[in-house]
Amino acid sequence: MSEATFFNLHDLSQGLPRELAEGITTRIFAGDMSMLSVARLEPHASGTLHAHPEEQWGVLLEGTLIRVQDGVEVEAKAGDFWRTPGGAAHTVRAGASGALVLDIFAPPREIYLSPGAGFGTPESA
Amino acid sequence: MSEATFFNLHDLSQGLPRELAEGITTRIFAGDMSMLSVARLEPHASGTLHAHPEEQWGVLLEGTLIRVQDGVEVEAKAGDFWRTPGGAAHTVRAGASGALVLDIFAPPREIYLSPGAGFGTPESA
Questions:
Q1: CATH code for position B49
Q2: B85 neighbourhood in chain A, CB within 8 Å
Q3: What is the C-alpha to C-alpha distance for residues A78 and B114, in angstroms, rounded to an integer?
Q4: Does residue A1 fall inside a structural domain?
Q5: Complex ipTM above 0.90?
Q6: Neighbour count for residue A95 (Cβ, 10 Å)
Q7: Count of domains observed in chain A
Q8: Taking an 8 Å Cβ-Cβ cutoff, which residues of chain B contact chain A?
Q9: What is the pTM (predicted TM-score) of this model?
């Protein structure tokens, strides 16, 4: 294994940058069967409700946020993680100190393989 | 979304327990298209070299370890993450303070859906 396959959560320069929403930026790391996205949310930043067929897991690494999924809001603290089945409408709202979130997609979200902005999907599945 | 789809890295009671090797225990959280495994490694615990067709990512959440993949050893510190393509032989050796590792498999490793022990594969792919 070469050094090139090693990354770090606090130095994301090797990832493909993407602005998901105002105050929410991410870096994308694509594999063959899954994809990681390490998203930094500024304090009180809000995503937009969206859905996609790919399964998603989220891991809250730092900060706090409100997770919205299928119309239910849950407060999350660092260390919490959750699953989003394909097709479930979801978004997040960061807390007062912002948040760092590791998102995992399987299979990879094709639209995130190219530079761009936004969540790549309309507000419903 | 019900509370039941929320988990925490430091309270893994909802995951399926598995002993991967002496001093390496994990909890499995299975999705439809991917699977998370949160592994606790005791100080200096060693895995055994193994391989599987599923893609894997590892995220070192706490501690230090030596990552062995395709015969190359890399020292990892907290925050490092890495990708293991399907079929690549790999293992880890924990450092002096042990380690907490989030492993991600896509697709899910079927053998980890059932209670058991070990990495579930022979030493070569």
A1: 2.60.120.10
A2: 31-32
A3: 29
A4: no
A5: yes
A6: 19
A7: 1
A8: 1-3, 5-10, 29, 31-34, 36, 54-55, 57, 59, 67, 69-70, 72, 74, 76, 79-83, 85-86, 88, 102, 104, 106-107
A9: 0.93
